[in-house]
Amino acid sequence: MIQLNNISFSFKKGEPLFNDLNWSLQPGKTYGLLGLNGAGKTSLFNIISGMLFPSDGACTFDGNVVRNRNPQFLSELFIVPEQFELPAMSGDQYTQLHAPFYPRFDEQLMERSLSELQVNSKKKISELSFGQQKKFLLSFALATRTKLLLLDEPTNGMDIPSKSQFRKLQASLNQPDRCTVISTHQVRDLGSMIDHVTILKDGKIIFNHSLDEIFEHLSFIKTESDQPDKFIYSEEVLGGLHTIQPFKDGAGNEFDLELLFNGVIQQPEQINKQFNGGE
Ligand SMILES: Nc1ncnc2c1ncn2[C@@H]1O[C@H](COP(=O)(O)OP(=O)(O)OP(=O)(O)O)[C@@H](O)[C@H]1O
């Protein structure tokens, strides 16, 4: 669906942000795009949505170059940016005005999302708090039913019950034609929402695997051992170590996205080796 081929991009001459980056995104999947501050997550979203132009390589959506921003592509893309400004009109007016751009806009889903996230669409959006505005925009985003949905730090600004309500809502939707990418560094919020982990560092994608592949090749085990060098990666926790190990059948294996993220950032080669037969 989305294909990034050999993308290079810099804001400043001589300081590449992306260097020969490749990534392929498929329908029906939810990708977690993770990276440290400044890794380039937002910039990559801007390249995918055709708002930033790579200096080399191309990004295509169903075979069409996204930088052309043709109307058919724009009607299949919705992006919720980290920062946004919504107009001084009620939520209902906003929906009435913007829904016609999206051919499969789902009004029932919009109503359900607003009700589950407890957003009042009769009020002027610009007078809602930031968290309420975000919940409004996320409700609209889900309801557009676009083929591509980009969410930049979607849970920033949301209270704890809303975060969990949003996760439930997203998980309850059957979206076989939609590709969702969620960018965040709030790894804990994301674990149950994604089925693919992509990690960006130093201008490249350094880890790109589905959860199924991860469960096949790695185990996440708490142990009382005090020998960190026995494991691929470990962090000290109360009473021992939280470790990443080559896959082991048996009890005690509990996926931890934050541990995986930290492990990949610090030991990318050792972790990736497990996916190539451990050699
Ligand atoms: N308009 C711009 N002009 C110059 N440099 C920029 C611009 N926008 C972003 N950058 C730089 O590009 C790098 C990547 O920024 P980006 O916002 O894409 O990262 P991010 O991974 O989304 O970060 P965060 O997690 O902090 O939101 C940063 O070093 C940033 O300073």
TrEMBL record:
Cross-referenced Pfam families:
ABC_tran (PF00005)
Q: Is Ribosomal protein a UniProt keyword of this protein?
A: no
**Signal sequence residues:** none
Query: Which SMART domains does its entry note?
Result: AAA
Name used for this protein in its record:
ABC transporter ATP-binding protein
Example of a GO MF term: ATP binding
InterPro entries, A to Z: AAA+_ATPase, ABC_transporter-like_ATP-bd, P-loop_NTPase
- Tell me if Nucleotide-binding is a UniProt keyword of this record: yes
Ranges for domain ABC transporter? 2-227
The record's section on PANTHER family has: ABC TRANSPORTER ATP-BINDING PROTEIN YTRB (PTHR43158:SF10), SKFA PEPTIDE EXPORT ATP-BINDING PROTEIN SKFE (PTHR43158)
List keywords of the entry alphabetically: ATP-binding, Nucleotide-binding
